[in-house]
Amino acid sequence: MFPAQTAKQLSAKVQSGEYTAQQLTELVLSHIRATDKDINAYITVDEKGAQQQAEAIDQKIASGQPVGALAGIPIGVKDVLCTQGLRTTCASKILDNFIPPYDATIVANLRQADAVILGKLNMDEFAMGSSNENSHFGTVQNPHDLTRVAGGSSGGSAAAVASEEAFMALGSDTGGSIRQPASFCGTVGLKPTYGRVSRYGLIAYASSLDQAGPLTRNVEDAALLLSVIAGHDPSDSTSADVEVPNYTANLDQGVDGLTIGLPKEYFAEGLQDDVRQAVMNGVDVRKIHVQRIIGFFANFKCWSG
Q1: Has 198 been annotated as catalytic?
Q2: DSSP letter string over the chain?
Q3: Does the N terminus or the C terminus of the chain have fewer Cβ atoms within 10 A?
Q4: Residues spanned by CATH 3.90.1300.10 within the chain?
Q5: Mean pLDDT by 10-residue block, N- to C-terminus, for the chain (305 residues)?
């Protein structure tokens, strides 16, 4: 559906005038109207707000003003992140009418980058789940097979990207809530290192583990979106005050010289043979040329009751 493969390409088309942000926004909104009744990726679609954002971006471009790295890109936001003036529910009836008075830091980053925020994406209630069946607003269906789940808790984010109801999305991950639904839906999902992305305005599940991150259609877009949302934030006491690398420029550097750890207990009885083989193929040193791969047992005794 999208007239470009990557966000960088799509934004370039908007900035060159080949397409307008308003055209792209309406393209996605019409697609949401047609498809989301079956997928249920969105809790709230902010049509009026998205159209106003797109119009403002087009006006900036027309007047020759500089625009951000995500100019005109339609993005969905997991409903665990505060959005000023836009309902934020955490997929719970308890917060059904909660309207935040401020933006989460990374939502503000999206606005500064001139992205178009389409609305709020479905999730497991308060991010406690891994199938997106635990939402006051209903189950998210997998776009590739509507009889299957999209994973969770960021199921709406993964499903929206997979079904082209958003070009990119923000999710959050405590113990797999970006990575697992991304895998289920065939998208790219990344949990950044703790402290890399601000948690200010992210409604907590487990504050010492939560991180927001990107869900995208390809790795280049994940790098671009991470570069927009990463960075030190004084409003988050655990935010890392370290320089943000150029993730996009680093994509071609490969993994030569890295040490990779592989938890041995992940290969317990019950793991399907094809899954085991796929993982082992992925860590074959002859294929990825890493310096070494070490096996270890993760000690989770400190978490036992």
Answers
A1: no
A2: --SSSSHHHHHHHHHHTSS-HHHHHHHHHHHHHHHHHHH--EEEE-HHHHHHHHHHHHHHHHTT----TTTT-EEEEETTB-BTTB---TT-GGGTT---SS--HHHHHHHHTT-EEEEEE--SGGG--SSS---TT-PPEETTEEEEE--SSSHHHHHHHHTTS-SEEEEEESSSTTHHHHHHHT-EE--PPTTSB--TTB--SSTTT-EEEEEESSHHHHHHHHHHHBS--TTSTT---SPPP-TTGGGGG--TT-EEEEEGGGG-TT--HHHHHHHHHHT-HHHH--SEEEEE----GGG--
A3: C
A4: 7-253
A5: 84 95 98 98 99 98 97 99 98 97 99 99 98 97 98 98 98 97 98 98 95 98 98 98 94 79 82 89 63 54 47
